[in-house]
Fold each of these.
Amino acid sequence: MCNLYRMTKGTAEVAAWFDTVESAGGANFGAEVYPGYPGLVVAGGAVKQMNWGFPLVLKGKSGQPLKPKPVNNARTDKLDSFFWRHSFEQRRCLIPLTAWAEAQGTKGSMTRTWLALPGQDLFAAAGVWRDSDEFGACFAMVMTGSAGSAVEDVHSRMPVLLARDDYDVWVSGSPEDALSLCQPWTGELTIDRTDQPWVRGATSQQSLL
């Protein structure tokens, strides 16, 4: 799964890459995006800023509402569940990114392993989005059921990466056609195993549903 990704391009570059309208005026997002933080998506023919993660509303032992947690990853096999179904059927989006990270190592001393497409400093992951009372407009990244042989030693799942020819199918195609794209990436990937510490408060938030 993905609890951290990198997006180093501005809204104008994203709009040009995806051949869409630049509309995220005043966008405020970091080069590294964590659950619960803002990032860019391409939805409705425009570049928009949304928060990463659908709100999961929980209650305490006494029934009191707790602070919502951002569920930032949607499992492919759960896209027909109540939590995701309407967004998957009606509100799919593209998530521009330049790399994503996975945690590797022993608990307490995990480091970041960055993955990307070789020779591409911008590509797209499949996403879904919706409006929420808690976070405003928000999005989640769709994850494959398995990682595939290319990255199976890094993690058991990976983001659904989309080829350019599949952008329209993901955004505007039928749910059946979109679901057929939810497969491990079969092309080449670069894997950069770093000594950067993984731990940061934002990366430990709710991630997958």
Amino acid sequence: MKKYFIAGILVWAPLSITVWVIAWGLGLLDGVFGSVMHAIIMVLPHDAAVDVQHFRDLPGVGILIVIAVIMFTGLVAISFAGQWWIRMWNKQINRIPIVRSIYSSVQQVSSTLFSGSGQAFSKALLIRYPHADSWVIAFQTGTPAKEVAAKLGEDYVNVFLPTTPNPTSGFFMIVPRAQTIELDMSVEEALKHIVSMGSVPPNNSSGLPSQDSPHHF
């Protein structure tokens, strides 16, 4: 009975978690659309508001419209006129206290993560944490700011140390480059290895550091 139960869990657990994540994402999109539609309904005449509400209640309509709006926004954003409007929008947002700090921070993080030229999560590294006799897998996210680099006076790198089994939380750390070991495994393989708490080995790696990796300790 124990063997059959474990086999059943191994079949249903990945499927259930995948469905849950997709449902959460779709629900988030539908919630964004619902908030916009509610604001529109509040300012429309009664008859028009009833028609819009009926349209809003159709299953899946909110998700499809949000996706269409995102695609249309991206299409406009890459055009010359769209880039001009984005610059004007950013100027107006940057004039609002508090909002500008949040908006600019999120904008910079998004640009770094989703652009192909960014350094975010470019390499998987081994670093010593939480003490000198233990190692963890972290991801290189760039290099320190100029002021930080000038005060440190050595070659340092920015790393993100994810937690297990939830890799969306973790620690931002600045560590000496000489005290890191670059891994041959891809970022995706390293992430799977972390999420599985080390039980899923990388596909093309034996789990040992590369022979060519520098060891300066």
